[in-house]
From TrEMBL:
Residues 109-470 form the Sulfatase N-terminal domain. The lineage of its organism: Eukaryota, Metazoa, Spiralia, Lophotrochozoa, Annelida. Signal peptide: none annotated. CDD domains: iduronate-2-sulfatase. This is Sulfatase N-terminal domain-containing protein. SUPFAM superfamilies: Alkaline phosphatase-like. It comes from Paralvinella palmiformis.
């Protein structure tokens, strides 16, 4: 059978699986256009709801609306549950074979790797000057993650390398910077441009661990397609496909946020993240006897989808945050920073453009105060929901007697704006998009809890976890490392356990491609400094382009003083009083990236 035929059969199989799931949803969802959850455009009594669809506005009675909510969620989650049950039978067979043939070691730690999507440090353990809104009085409700933080190394200033799911995850899971991985968007699959890179779970797999993926860990292409090479037991593509359809159906129906009430849970209905937690618990129970006896080691990756849009979770979590208690961004923080070059304004595509059908993303386009409060509340509720799911996993680890042999790491993949700087989404070079939670619990090492304000990057996670688990250390990458399958551009942050106030690195580097320019942003002890560099794009063939950064031309520069201005409301880059700070940070940025240019025309003074 020829290669072309094999490819055709493979694509046919994938297409059929997608169509099957789509047909199931289409068949059981005849009311798909009318169904909505509560959202702020609805009248206060929820009797009338406006819809953005081709038929224009419709009016739905309260009785009909309740019926649609109840049945849509029941049907859609029933299909999801059936898919997971069918897949779990196949996974159980493979897991049984792996457990019976694995050779583990009690000298190595197991790893529970927990990720949350679009999570800024909206946790109680971050309360204070490193909290996303240092001026708020509304405290978060995250008791379980706070419990984990109390026995972990908590990194209060950890920064992603790219504020978008795909590039951020590709970077942290390979331990390489986005420019090395050459993944700057959701469409690019890093294996297609850098096939030889060894990923974090793959390294554990190669060292004899049973590597299992549940939920969203990688994000390659639309629909967060997995990297099957990294896992012994990957989450099947059918689940990825269904999750994408589940989310898109809700978003296309303008169901941005809302809650699931008890009467909607007929037949013990579970939302996707609840199902994910249930299956994670089942895997832990299956792995525990082998792990405790030293016959097997595991790397279990659990990736939660909340608080990514749509902000839907159980009503009990919404009740924690009455809308009247939710505060707004401060007046000076609602808009783009003062002296910000508006011709370089950054996109806020997610909520305003993709969900609320606002076709433009003009700078300083803001929502009403009520809408702002409503959506902020929805986000806070989903953070508390994820906290509750993580609490179930932590309790199960304790119950199974795995606490003393399992490293637990919790992280987000990037932050999120909730109206700050007039943005609703990720994908910016501001602090809110690049600052995210990171904590690691190492049994017998971090039991009393350690808090460090040292600057840490997400490329540091790979070498840190490897060292914490007791595996052979990963070599440091040379300046040019695209031809090397295994190395890291990060640095283990385990030294912070003994010396939490030590200086691990002087700056954390993030970047973002937008509108033909690459924005490089460095976070230092006091400042955030950003340069926007034009990219020259040259077509090699129909699918491959060469990109060349035009370092001799910087289109605009930003500088924010996080001591005097933690919300980044005033751009100081064009002030004579900060000339030296700008040039010092310019030199630091070039050194981090490896650019050897003696002079750059900053066009500032």
């Amino acid at each position: 059978m020829g290669l072309y035929t094999v490819k055709r059969l493979r694509y046919l199989g994938i297409t059929l699986s997608i169509l099957t799931v789509g047909l199931l949803i289409f068949t059981i969802d005849p009311l798909r256009k009318e169904y909505v959850l509560q959202y702020p455009h609805a009248h206060v009594d929820n009797i009338r709801v406006e819809h953005n669809n081709t038929e224009g506005r419709k009016e739905v009675s309260k009785k009909q609306q309740t019926y649609y909510k109840k049945n849509r969620l029941r049907h859609i989650t029933t299909v999801y549950k059936q898919i997971l049950q069918n897949i779990s039978i196949k996974a159980e067979h493979k897991l049984g074979h792996l457990l019976n043939t694995s050779t583990g070691s009690l000298n190595r730690k197991n790893v529970l790797f927990i990720m949350s999507d679009d999570l800024r440090p909206q946790l109680g353990s971050y309360w204070g000057r490193n909290y996303p809104n240092p001026f708020t009085n509304l405290k978060p409700h995250t008791p379980h993650l706070d419990r984990l933080a109390s026995s972990s190394l908590l990194l209060t200033r950890a920064y992603v390398q790219y504020s978008l799911c795909g590039p951020s995850r590709a970077s942290l899971l390979t331990g390489r910077r986005p420019d090395t991985v050459t993944t700057w968007n959701l469409e690019t699959k890093f294996r297609e441009v850098q096939r030889n890179f060894t990923t974090l779970p793959e390294y554990f797999k190669d060292n004899g661990y049973i590597s299992i993926n549940l939920g969203k860990i990688f994000h390659q292409g639309h629909g967060w397609k997995n990297d099957f090479q990294s896992w012994n037991i990957p989450e099947p593509q059918e689940v990825n496909n269904f999750q994408g359809l589940y989310r898109s159906r809700l978003l296309l129906s303008n169901e941005v946020s809302g809650f699931v009430t008890p009467d909607q849970r007929e037949g013990n209905m579970l939302t996707p993240d609840e199902s994910l937690t249930q299956y994670s618990v089942n895997y832990l129970r299956r792995l525990a006897p082998y792990a405790k006896s030293g016959n097997a080691n595991f790397f279990l990756g659990v990736g939660y989808h909340r608080p990514h849009l749509p902000w839907i979770c159980s009503k009990e979590f919404y009740d924690l945050f009455p809308v009247e208690n939710v505060d707004l961004p401060r007046e000076e923080n609602k808009y783009y920073p003062k002296h910000y070059p508006l011709n370089e304004h950054q996109p806020h595509l997610e909520l305003l453009r993709h969900v609320l059908n606002k076709t433009t993303h003009e700078p300083n386009e803001i929502l009403s105060d009520y809408e702002t409060k409503y959506y902020r509340r929805a986000y806070f509720a989903c953070v508390s929901f994820v906290d509750d799911m993580v609490g179930i996993l932590l309790d199960e680890v304790e119950k199974l007697g795995l606490s003393e042999s399992t490293v637990i790491i919790f992280l987000g993949d990037h932050g999120w704006h909730l109206g700050e700087n007039s943005l609703w989404g990720k994908r910016s070079t501001f602090e809110q998009s690049n600052h995210t939670p990171l904590m690691i619990k190492i049994p017998g090492v971090t039991d009393n809890g350690i808090v460090s304000d040292a600057l840490v990057e997400f490329i540091d996670i790979f070498p840190t976890l490897v060292e914490a688990a007791g595996l052979p250390l990963v070599p440091v990458c040379p300046r040019q490392s695209r031809e090397l399958s295994l190395c890291t551009e990060g640095t283990s942050f385990l030294p912070l356990i003994d010396k939490p106030s030590s200086l691990l690195k002087t700056a954390a580097l993030s970047q973002l491609y937008y509108d033909g320019k690459m924005g490089y942003s460095v976070k230092t002890e006091r400042y955030r400094y950003t340069e926007w560099i034009p990219l020259n794009k040259t077509e090699v063939n129909k699918e491959i382009y060469d990109y060349h950064l035009m370092w001799n031309t910087v289109t605009c520069v930003e500088l924010y003083d996080h001591v005097a201005d933690p919300e980044e409301n005033v751009n100081l880059a064009y002030e004579d009083t900060h000339r030296d700070v700008v040039f010092d940070h310019n030199s630091m940025l070039k050194e981090l990236i490896g650019v050897k240019i003696s002079h750059v025309n900053l066009k500032l003074f």
